[in-house]
Amino acid sequence: MAPPMTRRLAAALLVWLVVVPGTVAAVPAGGGPGTSDGTPTAADDVLSALEEAARPLGTTEPSGPFEDLRPFGDAVGDAVMVGVGEAAHGSHDFVAFRHRVFRYLVERRGFRSFVLEANWSAGARLDAYLLTGRGDPVRIMSEEFQNAFLLLHSQDYLDMIRWMRAYNVAHPDDPVRFAGNDNAYAGPEVYDQVVEHVRRAHPGLLPAVTELYRGLRPTLPVGEWIRAAMTAPLDERRARAAGTGRVLALLGAREPAGKDEDHVRAVQHARAVDQVARMYAFDLTDPRAVPQAMAYRDTVMAENTLWWHRHTGHRLVLGGHNSHVYTSSSTPHLPLTQGAVLRRRLGDGYLAVGLSFDRGAVHATGQGLQNPTDDDVRRFEVEPAAAGSVEHTLDRVSHRNWYLDLRTAPSAARAWLDVSRPKREIGTDFPPPGDQVRPLRSADLMVHLHEIRPSRRLDRETAGQRPRTPGATTDPLPALKGPPVRCAPWSPPAPSTTCAPWGRWWAPPGRSAPDGSLTAAATSPPAGTGCSGARSRGRTSAPSCSKPPGASGSPSPTATTA
Questions:
Q1: What residue stretch is flagged as signal peptide (predicted)?
Q2: Which residue, 447, 420, 429, 419, is CA-closest to 322?
Q3: Is the pLDDT reported for residue 377 higher than 60?
């Protein structure tokens, strides 16, 4: 039998919890809070420095004026991805604040996509609704947000989806988009899209693809399918992964010479199917497999988010738990975070926003519960933060709700923020395991709320599998307008090149940006463009492009990683 800690970690991964038990990271010389040389910093000096840097929030609710977010927008600068975390999944206020930030960045900064810690197929169905108005978001969320994703099934997320649809009705030529980046489930539409593309474009592959996918297309509701997938014999799970990987390889080998959006989408769908199968192919009874599986999951989420960015050209808000958004991990059991991959790929093009709170209430399940259902969700009261924690000091700032840019905070504040301390990171279950977070190394901005309220749960619309409409297309991802950019996925530790849209060209063709700063539209990098990526955490460092010898014209800004 595995040790208690290993069993706890395996359970956490099996239910897709976002928080694993943390260990204390190294503190600066001197063994405690202090300056870089170990000299203690007086508590009053730290608090005074935080007060100086803090920017008050007028509200966390999505509606209302945006004046209090102007410094937030300045901090975003030219970043193309803004990861806005949450310190608890089952909170109204964290989701509402992220919704508010998304609205602001859409209306004032030209952001056009929202990517959530949800399954690829769930995002695709919601995106189709946003673009066409067909379907019912209440039903989609009810069917998709089950098992460990059941806390996404809330009025708070539904409000954001409805706002996005209203925006698209008012701006049909410049819509906002939605994507999921997680890999716990791939819906039947995703399989259908791959098979139908093969039937149409590569009929010679159809017998092989049909056989490799035999029995894999989900027929159960999401929650039941996940439960069955986790309990299947390991050999069977690994055989499925071998099959899905073979399909992906077959499609990749047929990569067309020219532009073919149908093929690009089909390959991404096949990749999503394979990502799910490979996630369940880990042997979680082996303690060595747990950190590998956690790192794989976060790498997948980063890859899917980068794919979406590349193929839409959109600046986007990334939503997820702090532990995924952070650019560094607080525990060896999560050796690689999504935020770390994005920082490595995009440099300062990725901005991480961590959230914290002092007290309140959340919705969650009991600790370590596997395969939760709606009946397992309860309201938990969260006591004020304990002395010595990150939140305890942040809550002493005079503003009730506020944020600060950690990169430009006074030196006394930065020294205090550069030490690992306890911080509550509540995932699907409660109580949290007690992570240790070093804010300055984990986030670029920090948002602190004095008190949070639990999420507003929705009644489950239906527990059954959604029927397929006869004659309707099964492609949940409508054609993308921009041409694709071929980029290799990141695979540690080997270097790779990512050609991702970069910079402030988010205005539609022929239209000015809201602040009048730009009139150009997103374009793909010219063939042969050489790219170099910045790795600095400085605010002015950004990836850049250089033209190959003899090339003419101006290269489109892109980002790479070493």
A1: 1-25
A2: 447
A3: yes
